[in-house]
Amino acid sequence: xxxxxxxxxxxxxxxxxxxxxxxxxxxxxxxxxxxxxxxxxxxxxxxxxxxxxxxxxxxxxxxxxxxxxxxxxxxxxxxxxxxxxxxxxxxxxxxxxxxxxxxxxxxxxxxxxxxxxxxxxxxxxxxxxxxxxxxxxxxxxxxxxxxxxxxxxxxxxxxxxxxxxxxxxxxxxxxxxxxxxxxxxxxxxxxxxxxxxxxxxxxxxxxxxxxxxxxxxxxxxxxxxxxxxxxxxxxxxxxxxxxxxxxxxxxxxxxxxxxxxxxxxxxxxxxxxxxxxxxxxxxxxxxxxxxxxxxxxxxxxxxxxxxxxxxxxxxxxxxxxxxxxxxxxxxxxxxxxxxxxxxxxxxxxxxxxxxxxxxxxxxxxxxxxxxxxxxxxxxxxxxxxxxxxxxxxxxxxxxxxxxxxxxxxxxxxxxxxxxxxx
Amino acid sequence: xxxxxxxxxxxxxxxxxxxxxxxxxxxxxxxxxxxxxxxxxxxxxxxxxxxxxxxxxxxxxxxxxxxxxxxxxx
Lengths: 422, 74
Known about the structure:
The structure holds 2 protein chains of 2 kinds. In chain A, 48% of the residues lie in helices and 10% in strands. Chain A contains 17 helices and 14 strands. In chain A, the strands form 5 sheets. Chain A has a 5-stranded mixed β-sheet, with helices on both faces. Chain A has a 3-stranded antiparallel β-sheet with strand order 4-14-11. Chain A has a two-stranded antiparallel ribbon with strand order 5-6. In chain A, strand 1 and strand 2 form a beta hairpin. In chain A, helix 10 crosses helix 12 and helix 13 packs across helix 14 (271-279). Chain A is globular. Chain B starts with a helix and ends with a strand. A 3-stranded antiparallel β-sheet of chain B has the order 2-1-3, covered by helices on one side. Chain B has helices at 2-5, 23-27, 52-60, and strands spanning 8-13, 44-48, 67-72. Chain B is an alpha+beta fold. Classes of the chains: A alpha+beta, B alpha+beta. The interface between A and B is medium-sized, with 23 and 21 residues.
């Protein structure tokens, strides 16, 4: 035991140190097993990577950290470097992300504004839009008997739904959705990643242009609602509106795509689950929660400790960095019986895949609507799809997000439901 | 049986912990309601013991553990 600073800060908790790196290839390949070992031995563990951070692996610990954002901040501070506090290590996202990087009373009015735009009833009202685009993108491939379930279906459909809702023109949809998918799906040394990185500023500038345009020319879309809204009685600034729209684009596209891809790959590998879902579509509501529990698109979320506090018996100090593992909390045996097993009709299933507390995912209701519509159509129209196992590629890192980069599939060709060829 | 049916179930939603997941409403819409943002709007509610199953179903679905269900002793 060396007298390193983290250990002395943790008092007699030197035994809490583990060899852990959520950016490592080992984590990408076997996060569940690595996390289970740490969760059973040391629910709140310390790792010295990236300047040092606490790893919280239990459901109880996740609740404690996520519930109080004045003690466990999502905001900007100098602890652990500059940049986005929700990531370890921090990185510079270019702008202050709203509402994600706000805390406490400042955060809540923005949260309520977006919660209203994406409420359960508003999400339900977008179901016909999800149906239209799921049908459209299946129509493009259904006669050929082959497609890439990611690039031809899982990626473009959530993009079309979210970007049409925000009022972006159709020319923006595929480039934006594909850039976000390539950004997550390819390693930093690949040409695909380089292209995605180069295209990234374009996404932000399109958000800027979209807000500027809707301020001058209001339309019937969510960008107009955001740009012309009031927050705590004060008219929304153009800068804040751009940040919100940018946040919605970043958070709302590849997450749902990831979940659809994970579910389709699961149902390829577990044909008995596919058969049950096809025979009894009413199971889809419960199955959706189980797909979310075992395949959370967002794997981890970080916070900064702003006041000395205790998490499950471990003393944390002001300035400490904390990483909550959603993957691990969703496998916590104290909350989920037989936690490693996929149980299609599991209930109760209070998983943490949309996060917890005031910063929970505000797109959860729309994500469920889009996901269920996409699964329903895929199982109805290409029920016998087979994925080429040797060509399935996983995201190279699971540090922030998880999913399948590509999933080439074949199926019995079917007929288009619409005739318009765009 | 008659005596049992007269018992009441008290449901309490911790409004600080509720974060608007609306899973209580999804799991037991016959009992739980949400406001226009998706947050629980019931606060505290006493219902017939005949609703106990629905009460527990909605509470178990809450990812925030914000809902407690208890039997009211007359």
